[in-house]
Amino acid sequence: xxxxxxxxxxxxxxxxxxxxxxxxxxxxxxxxxxxxxxxxxxxxxxxxxxxxxxxxxxxxxxxxxxxxxxxxxxxxxxxxxxxxxxxxxxxxxxxxxxxxxxxxxxxxxxxxxxxxxxxxxxxxxxxxx
Length: 129
Description:
Layout: E1 3-7, H1 22-41, E2 47-56, E3 66-75, E4 79-88, E5 91-104, E6 109-110, H2 115-122
Antiparallel strand pairs: 1-3, 2-5, 3-4, 4-5, 5-6
């Protein structure tokens, strides 16, 4: 199962070539994860980003909405790897992998992912029931 987020490209995200700037896509991926956290965890997780990999496959224009598909690639002791696909008009425009770490803000360190959180995350892993 995956989580979907719809993004409306904005004029301010265009570059001089008339397509969406690559930096805007990184913001969109963060927005997709925030919507995932809100829907699935009601913002109860404190996660920090430790890695982002993005591959660009096709340009994105301002004319049509963008759909971001998000799913959980893997779950470690304190880390979660999220995969994303950015699509416009059913064309794959970008794919990415983001590693997030559960963070304990009082102790200022990573925290272990508990069983309840792990179970919720597994619902969004491919081929896992």
